[in-house]
């Protein structure tokens, strides 16, 4: 990045090494197309996971869920160790009146276990003037119950994805929009997610014909 003699000199770089812990998914320690040894791989705060990226992340999510379940079971028999001031600050937070609705729907892709937001994100959205409309069971595959979202306040649970798609101003997704989802959205709505830039012809045509806005991150 900073060495003029390097074949990748001047290329933009996301400085992930500044994180407390950085996890790199890679098949091997090979240099790749650039032929450059990446110094990131040798930093003390970096952990390397070799092999198939999806399998590696599934393993990480599984371990995190197990850890979360253990903490919950301990918490059930352990007194709340937070100070009274912390509890009072949480109770006293005054959120602005919601003027827009964020929608969260269940991801329906094969083998997909993720959900677009976790309960901890709800207060952040509320501070920005959003309420949350959540499809029932949308977080179950990720180990998150509807009650965990509801206890954050400002959340309503809808019985179906269609209900969310018809009422939300902004719909958050992890994967590409489904054809039937696109067909429900209206011109004043926006869907945001992560997906491959290439899609099926039917989906591309539907996106082009829809009056809604679609943002691919």
TrEMBL record:
<keyword id="KW-1133">Transmembrane helix</keyword>
<feature type="domain" description="Alanine dehydrogenase/pyridine nucleotide transhydrogenase N-terminal">
    <location>
        <begin position="103"/>
        <end position="215"/>
    </location>
</feature>
<keyword id="KW-0520">NAD</keyword>
<dbReference type="InterPro" id="IPR029035">
    <property type="entry name" value="DHS-like_NAD/FAD-binding_dom"/>
</dbReference>
<dbReference type="GO" id="GO:0016020">
    <property type="term" value="C:membrane"/>
</dbReference>
<dbReference type="InterPro" id="IPR034300">
    <property type="entry name" value="PNTB-like"/>
</dbReference>
<dbReference type="Pfam" id="PF05222">
    <property type="entry name" value="AlaDh_PNT_N"/>
</dbReference>
<keyword id="KW-0521">NADP</keyword>
<dbReference type="GO" id="GO:0006740">
    <property type="term" value="P:NADPH regeneration"/>
</dbReference>
<dbReference type="GO" id="GO:0050661">
    <property type="term" value="F:NADP binding"/>
</dbReference>
<dbReference type="InterPro" id="IPR007886">
    <property type="entry name" value="AlaDH/PNT_N"/>
</dbReference>
<keyword id="KW-0472">Membrane</keyword>
<keyword id="KW-1278">Translocase</keyword>
<dbReference type="Pfam" id="PF02233">
    <property type="entry name" value="PNTB"/>
</dbReference>
<keyword id="KW-0812">Transmembrane</keyword>
<dbReference type="GO" id="GO:0008750">
    <property type="term" value="F:proton-translocating NAD(P)+ transhydrogenase activity"/>
</dbReference>
<protein>
    <recommendedName>
        <fullName>proton-translocating NAD(P)(+) transhydrogenase</fullName>
        <ecNumber>7.1.1.1</ecNumber>
    </recommendedName>
</protein>
């Amino acid at each position: 990045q900073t060495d003029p003699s390097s074949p990748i000199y001047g290329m933009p770089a996301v400085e992930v090494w500044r994180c407390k812990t950085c996890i790199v998914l890679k098949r091997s320690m090979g240099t790749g197309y650039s032929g450059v040894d990446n110094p990131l791989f040798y930093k003390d705060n970096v952990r390397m996971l070799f092999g198939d990226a999806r399998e590696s992340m599934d393993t990480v999510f599984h371990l995190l869920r197990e850890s979360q379940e253990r903490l919950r079971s301990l918490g059930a028999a352990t007194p709340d160790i937070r100070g009274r001031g912390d509890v009072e600050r949480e109770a006293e937070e005054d959120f602005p009146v919601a003027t827009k609705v964020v929608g969260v729907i269940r991801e329906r892709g094969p083998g997909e276990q993720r959900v677009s937001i976790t309960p901890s994100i709800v207060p952040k959205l509320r501070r920005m003037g959003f309420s949350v409309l959540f499809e029932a069971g949308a977080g179950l595959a990720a180990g998150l119950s509807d009650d965990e979202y509801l206890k954050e306040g400002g959340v309503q649970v809808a019985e179906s994805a269609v209900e969310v798609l018809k009422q939300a101003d902004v719909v958050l997704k992890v994967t590409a929009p489904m054809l039937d989802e696109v067909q429900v959205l209206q011109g004043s709505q926006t869907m945001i997610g992560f997906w491959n830039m290439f899609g099926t012809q039917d989906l591309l045509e539907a996106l082009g014909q829809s009056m809604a806005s679609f943002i691919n991150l």
